Amino acid sequence: MLKKLKSLLFGKDATPSQPIAEGAPPIDVKVAVTNPSLVDAMNRLNTDQSSAAKTDLLLELNKSNYLAAIFSDEMNMSEPDENGNKEIEKGSLIKVLNTSDSEGNIYLPLFTDWCAIKNYINKPVDTLVFSPQKAWSWALSDYHGVVIYSEENSLPLNKSQIQYLASKVNKPT
Q1: Which of 37, 127, 160, 163 has the fewest beta carbons under 10 Å from its own?
Q2: 0.90 exceeded by the pTM?
Q3: Which residue from 139, 137, 157 is spatially nearest to 148, judged by alpha carbons?
Q4: What is the pLDDT of residues 16-72, one digit of tens each?
Q5: Rounded distance between C-alpha atoms, residue 18 and residue 114, angstroms
């Protein structure tokens, strides 16, 4: 499935000159991250390899917020303030879930929603929420690429594909 989606998305029918998206909605930590339009676009590409389906997926990749799974067992938090907010204390260790390919290259798994996380890992995790701009930036600086996981599909993106997406998403104001 990974190779099929990858070749379908970045095959010869993609329209790389088209602007991609306005960016994702603002992150609200009180609202669960869900990406039904991205999930639909990923599912659609399995049966529809048209330029329109590929363009829709590219648009949705840059309009979605993502979850990154973390292990917080060595993360120390401050006491809640009057609004209930906590801060990560200095010296805390935040362990980010990674994945790798058969050659040992490290990828950042990004999830469309909590259902995708639960299908991927059966250990307790917390999450960080990323806009596409932040996700692409982090992946380009520290990883070989990303893998976008939905409940049913996964989509690997290498650095050149992420650079392309990063160049097409509007920067937050």
Answers
A1: 160
A2: no
A3: 157
A4: 444 445 566 777 667 789 999 999 999 999 899 999 999 999 999 999 999 999 998
A5: 31
Q: What is the pLDDT of residue 172?
A: 53
Residue 113 CB-density burial (10 A; 0-12 exposed, 13-18 middle, 19+ buried):
buried
Q: For residue 160, what are the CA distances in angstroms to 34, 36, 132, 143, 145?
A: 26, 26, 15, 12, 9
Would you kindly state where each structural domain of the chain is located, as residue ranges?
Answer: 2-14+33-76+91-168
A 10 A CB-CB count for 49 gives 15
